[in-house]
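Dear colleagues,

I hope this message finds you well. In preparation for our joint manuscript, I am sending the Ribosomal RNA small subunit methyltransferase J (Bowmanella pacifica) sequence together with its predicted structure, so that both groups work from identical material. I would be grateful if you could confirm receipt.
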Amino acid sequence: MTVISILAAEPEFVAQAKLLAERWQLDFAEQADSGLVLWLDAQGLHLKTLDDLKMGTVQVDFASDAMAWRRQHGGGKNEAVAKAVGIKPGFRPQVLDATAGLGRDAFILASLGCQVTMLERVNAVAALLDDGLQRAANDPELSQWLPQRLKLLPASALDTLSAWQAEVPDVVYLDPMFPHRKKAALVKKEMRLFQLLLGPDLDADALLAPALCLAKKRVVVKRPSGAPYLNNQKPSLEMQGKANRFDIYLR
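The corresponding structure tokens are as follows:
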């Protein structure tokens, strides 16, 4: 896994960047010429590579136009992820998203009324998620409901699933990083940057057994179309989409 530093875009952000570096046990750098960094500016925290500035940055932005469109016009409770976790009239499952990433599916489930806890073991990614949650808490609309429904727990999924002490979730949701083999230009920039930072989840198969032991109703695994089953274990149900599928393991 790549070790990255936090850089401040302007001198006025140096103090905040140092505090973030201390909180998330990351390095603070006065400057850098290459590699991946967490970049702090007036818009918040971003993941970027200094080796290819044309790639832009990746940020957790729950108030973005893209997220607002998906929430308002993306299908709501008819979205594939909503159906996969078992949302029904009068029932909103409590979800443990054990591989949160950028938190997009977790956000959609929270917007539909689910209580969602996100686990993220990589400090740099947890810092991005926390930054997104803090900015959402200041958004006039999102602040009305998101802080009550979407929580972040910076922790290893493998350790936490086996030692879970809180209320048992109805659903454990897994979306482990899978290596993309397409041409780089065809892979979304956030996936390219995340692969540079994280690489594939080499222990992803080990998550299924503790997830099945913990979940009250089902485990849902999001996989690229054509990818093997997690731990080579055939699910109870499969929901196939254009680019992804959801493998559903009923309890």
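For the figure legend, we might mention the following. The CA atoms of residues 239 and 246 lie 5 Å apart. Residues 5-58 form a domain with the S-adenosyl-L-methionine-dependent methyltransferases fold (CATH 3.40.1630.10).

With kind regards,
E.M.
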